[in-house]
Amino acid sequence: MTCRVAITGLGVIAPLGNSVDALFTDLIAGRSGIRRLTSARSERLRSPIGAPADFDSAALFSPIRLRMLDRVSQLALLAAGQAIADARLTFASESRERCGVFVGTSMGGVVTTDEAYHSMYGERSERVQPLCVVAAMNNAPAAWIGIDHGLKGPNLTYSTACSSSAVALGEAASRIRCGEVDVMLAGGAEAPLTYGVLRAWEAMRTLATPDPIDPATSCRPFSHNRSGLVIGEGAAFVVLEEWQHARARGAHIHAEFSGYGLTSDVAHITRPTVEGQGTAMRAALRSAQLDPGRIDYINAHGTATSQNDAVETAAIKDVFGERARAIPVSSTKSMHGHLLGAAGALEFVISVVALERGTVPPTMHLNVPDPACDLDYVPEHARSGLPLRAVMSNSFAFGGTNAVLIAEAVDDAHGPRF
Amino acid sequence: MSTLQTLQDILVREYRLTHEQVGPEAVLSTLGLDSLSVLELMFKIEDRFLLKIADNTPTDLVTVSDVVRYIDGLLALQAPVGTAAQTSVRASM
Question: What whole-number distance in Å separates Cα of residue B42 and Cα of residue A335?
């Protein structure tokens, strides 16, 4: 049995906006959510920039609840709630054992962990918050979403570094495809803007040098003067639904989730390979039963590290051949930063909205061409009025787990795909 | 301020509850404080009353007045060593 997968709900809490509309409006306008950080101890950082999410947790959660919720779970609950509302799902008539939650996160409840370590090792306190374990555990975001919405099917958390939530989406779609479940809430959440985490990333020499005049322009994917990534926080969720289930309840279908490719580099722990990324794109195309010629937009992994952007460019050329230069490829990380484990879900949501609206967001701050990066990166300005039929979202990761997702426009005349 | 008033003040400030909700007979679980939340409340009590609470906090604290009795019991035990005990608690924080 192979079922089609409908995307019926989208939700985001992101550096640029706390709704899909607000986020996309900012992306199309080329606005950046990257800024100088003012959080505790950020003055001790060499690269004190990031892309924080901005929401009023005290107004949205009760104080007792907040004590149990690390920031990563707050972000996840809010974005998942939006996706469910967008899908107009109440779960009143669903079989709840056939509804599940898959979440990707790289660092889990690290705000809680960071604070506990600071208290114990820094301040030499013997007291540890009794809710530390349940707040910090990596599966807390998924567990809370399941509890809040009464979803009794599979509840899993994937941690494959920067491809975590792309994997969560792909695995969720696979469960629907094989008929095990009807509805999956899938996404990612990350809240990594703590001093401890940022110092660790700095130590790897992977973070961008802050632009001295305008910190918002510090992340420059595919540009010759790129200097590294900028870390962001946020969450993005989608409601994935078995096609007939969605049609039977009259749900609006944003797009079809049609392809998922998953491969491993098995090379260096951080250095990407053209082969690994390329085979993931090919696997996604096979899964969607699409020729490479059918992809109309690629949301690149595009981290703005020297390594990734050149390797990803070469991999796209390897897969798409001569046509590679005709496909708009953009890295929206130039504006929302790198959300690590949440990046794949956020960028897939952006890709789906681009598909629906026929508008491709730009790669910002790309102003010095790099001979090793010679594709059409949609520099500086969004492009609208495009007849997009199929879009691809790339997610690659330390550890080498490559995940590529494909969404296609809804075409009722198309009939069943499988 | 009595022990009850101080405890009520903690509950109102830290948990955004109303004074009406936190009467002596109010049940902690009804207020939304489960057993783990009560353990966390003990930290607030330690700080406010300058007490040292052992790891084996009783688990039979059901109402607000149960907690008041527990605090008063600790105060009676720890008050005689007063300044010394308080200094050591502070130093460890």
Answer: 44
